[in-house]
Write a structure and sequence with these properties.
This protein is of the alpha/beta class. It has a single domain, classed as Uracil-DNA Glycosylase, subunit E, CATH 3.40.470. Helices cover about 45% and strands about 15% of the residues. It contains 10 helices and 6 strands. A 6-stranded mixed beta sheet has the order 1-3-2-4-6-5, with helices on both faces. It is globular, with a radius of gyration of 16 Å. It starts with a helix and ends with a helix.
Amino acid sequence: MDIWQKWEEWYSSLGINPKDICHDGIVNENKDIYANLQQRVLFVLRDTNDARGNDLLDLLRTGPRYQTWHTIARWAAGILNKFPHYSQIDKLDVMSETLKNVAVINLKKKAGRSSADLNEINLFAFQDRQLLRKQIECINPNIIVACGTFDSVLWLLEPSFDSSNIDKHFARKDDLTILSWYHPTRVNNEQSYEDLRRLWNKAMLH
């Protein structure tokens, strides 16, 4: 039984329509390409905006649409390409290709609304914690960009992290780095790219 069958059974047991699940994960259909990357980047977001029953990966495989995914693609291009000048990654072909080399998940698989209810997000993250941990384990990232989800990611991955390896803005343990970062909506794209570069350099020197 794959993880989505388990999620459907779990939601059915909670009285949630399993057709409301929005699938996510490794964007590239060839999972081996992601698995063999030196930097396996996972973006952890909150929920989707009215994507009931959709597959987020189908959307991302055709390139970025909407502000959220253009922003994510720029951040990913920076991490995967050692942060070249912003003008070099602010191109549709670069962003489209970059999205094929990352993974993206939401803590809440049931479609949300235009603005996230953080209490509801945390409730879903807690009740789905075993499946979320299994999903992250299967993706096997060595870089997690927690987009407004840093605290949730830390407790999901406990006991891997403790106060000795957690900074206010990042956490490191063995070969895994977690960055505490903005949610990709309503950000200054060039400024957030430069801010991420500085945080990345700081985390790598820690």
